[in-house]
Here is the input.
Amino acid sequence: MNEKTKDRIITYVIAIAIPLGVGALSALLSREGMELYSTITKPPLSPPAIVFPIAWSILYLLMGISSGMIWERRLDCEAAVVGLRNYAISLGLNFFWSIIFFNLGAFLLAFVWLLALAASVIATAVSYRRVYPPAALLQIPYILWLLFAAYLNLGVYVLN
Here is the structure.
């Protein structure tokens, strides 16, 4: 294996580990509050609790792959730096959402937070598209999931 291939592998391992780590830490910090999901009134189309860790694991994997694609191009394009900055902001927003929702039970704040997160991910995708369109396409499932999550979050707020 040549040096360039090793560097690419390391880049993608780190890029995938970052969102998985952020998600795992957030889940760990909000795990006690997650019992809340079984006790609240949920809107129609609410999936069973087991769907969430599966969906988020897939989304974190896609986030990592797309950020790795952009990281590889960061020296060639200012939009890559902007995209990675937007991505970092979105990871921070993502990290705190479950704490706000589950630990604090602040459903309205969590909804507004989720809208900010969705806007940040859309900004990330737009920046990524300028650098490497396939990386932006990997953000589409995340954006769609966030819109679905916003529906669920708003429904929880209204019903509880």
In short: The mean pLDDT is 96. Helices lie at 3-30, 36-39, 51-71, 78-103, 107-131, 133-137, 140-159. The domain at 3-159 is CATH 1.20.1260.100 (Ferritin). DSSP finds seven helices and no strands in the chain.
